[in-house]
Amino acid sequence: MVDRHLRILRFISLFILACLAILQAGGCGSVRTRTGFYEPITTQLKNHNFETVVESLEKAREEGKYGKKDRLLYYLDAGMANYYAGRLDTSNAKLTLAEDAAEELFTKSISRAAASLLLNDNVLEYSGEDYEILYTNIIKALNYADLGKFDDAFVEVRRVNLKLDVLEQKYGKAAEELQRGSPDDTNRVELDYKVDEVRFHNDAFARYLSMHFYAADGKWDDARIDNEYLTKAFRQQSHVYNFDIPDVSYRSEKGKAILSVIGMAGLCPVKEAFDLRIRTDKDLNLVQVLYTDSENNEVEYQHLPIDIGEDIYFKFSIPRIVERPSVVRTVRVFADDQMIGELQLIEDVYRVAEETFKARRSLIYIRSVARAIAKGLASYKLKKDLDTGGIGGWLKKAAVDVATDISEASDLRCSRLLPGRIYIGDFEIDPGVYDIRIEFLDSPGHVVGAKTIPAYKVVQRGLNMVQGFSPH
User: Fold this and answer.
1) What's the structural domain count of the chain?
2) Bridging pattern class, strands 465-470 and 257-267
3) What is the mean pLDDT of the chain?
4) What is the pLDDT of residues 176-199, one digit of tens each?
5) Are residues 283 and 381 in the same domain?
6) How confident is the model at residue 382 (pLDDT cuts 50, 70, 90)?
7) Which residue from 79, 124, 452, 456 could staple onto 109, CB 3.0 to 4.6 Å apart?
8) Contact call for residues 83 and 419 (beta carbons, < 8 A)
9) pLDDT digits (tens, 9 = 90+) for 194-215
10) How far is it, in rounded angstroms, from Cα 152 to Cα 14?
11) 5 lies in which domain range?
């Protein structure tokens, strides 16, 4: 009897593994986000092997780690890798491809999502997050400034706040399309697609760059206006800028020059799966969305008054933004061997990402709930039809559960090479030629990263701007 039970269990295990293999081969593997190939690349980045990072990304693309639906993600990553490696023209070329594709792919993904409720977001082409596309413009502006192409730098930095101005309109239209759906979608679940408000319309770092670009061109009044906008960004958006406003200076009254130093530290936030469950009550016409808290208690996330004909219990997940903390606590600057000051924080990319993700997250959540309900009811009915009794019936139902679980994975794609925090400093200094050194220090005061810009010429009139990056 024991041997017979063991044989049955072994058979069940093999059957489920076979189901997984078949589903994987049939394309269900495409609903899982692959991130493992980033691990060696991140290690290379933290070892400041920027040229190797570029090579590794290209190799990953050749090996199919970036699928056709991930071309925008490749453009973003390659653009940032080339930026760190000092390949400014290539960086701009890649980031331009990312920006050009973003709007087209967003519209396309919304249309496909509206056409079929059961489509998982992972099978759609990745259209980028809003904060990722905003920083493509910022990085391109820095690249153009380094290349001496100030008109192009102005264009890029202006695009940042122009994009922020239309975020709510962009997601409002997306919500309307998802609400209409497709008349051919028989799985449709009627829910109200409401977009969360985006409370971010003014990027402080973009204002900082624009201020200095104007000042370098002698447009002092325009520089003053951008300085005022920078101040407003902190005063009116304290949920994003929850730290002291940095001291900035774009004009010296002492006949000296202004040296502007930018330090980027750490790596950008990523997405993780937030697991939720649907539980329905057909007698109460109620749908509960539940999650497990840190104390392992089942807590209600939301409840919806929906008429459901069956009692079902079903798992699903949605993406959420999580921070990758940086060990950098101090960034100091030297001109030759003399320390001229420390940089101050102007932008926390995690907070920008979290705020700009809100509108999209609200649509993802509602659509995920609707999809979970539709799939839950469909799998319930299918299992009921397949329940022929005995081991055979159980195995058929188990296969349905396995297939359903595999198809419900949240889309965790995102660029992993953007910086995490941005620091700035403006220093009055005599015009001349200096070896500029930027040092990144952790809490105990150890230098975890540094960049030296040898023989940098500081001019009295014009733009004096240097940059450094530490991924730690």
Assistant:
1) 2
2) parallel
3) 87
4) 999 988 777 777 777 888 899 999
5) yes
6) low
7) 124
8) no
9) 899 999 999 999 999 999 999 9
10) 60
11) 1-25
Encoded tokens for 387? 């329940």
Q: Is the pLDDT of residue 4 over 70?
A: no
Say which residue, 25 or 105, is predicted with more confidence: 105
- Pick from 233, 238, 236: which is nearest to 248 by CA? 233
In a shared domain, residues 43 and 11:
no
The pair of three-digit structure tokens given for residue 91, joined into one six-digit string: 């960086």
Span 44-73, mean pLDDT? 95
- Residues 39, 17, single domain; the answer is no
User: HSE-up of 306 (CA within 13 Å, CB side)?
Assistant: 21
* CATH number for position 414: 1.25.40.10
Place of tokens 């489920």: 16
Residue 265 and residue 351 share a domain: yes
* pLDDT for 102 beyond 80: yes
Assess whether 195 and 276 both reside in one domain. Answer: yes
- Whether residues 16 and 85 fall in one domain: no
**DSSP bridge partners of 426:** 260
Contact 163, 130 (CB under 8 A): yes
What is the rounded average pLDDT of the residues 103-109? 92
| Mean pLDDT, range 25-33, rounded to an integer | 53
Report the C-alpha gap between 294 and 9 in whole angstroms. Answer: 34
Q: Same structural domain for residues 254 and 128? A: yes
**Residue found under tokens 């960004």:** 233
Instruction: Using pLDDT thresholds of 50, 70 and 90, give the confidence band for residue 38.
Output: very high
Pull the structure tokens for residue 101.
């594709």
Cβ atoms 335, 430 nearer than 8 A: no
Query: Best-predicted range by mean pLDDT among 12-26, 366-380, 441-455?
Result: 441-455
Q: Strands of 298-304's sheet, edge to edge? A: 298-304, 286-292, 270-281, 313-322
Helix (H) or strand (E) holding 392: helix 390-406
- Decide: 279 and 290 in contact? Cβ < 8 Å: yes
Helix, strand or coil, per DSSP, at residue 109 = helix
The Cα–Cα gap between 151 and 149 comes to 6
72, 188, 290 from 287: Cα distances, Å: 36, 16, 10
Which residue type does 198 have?
V
Q: Which residue has the tokens 């400041």?
A: 48
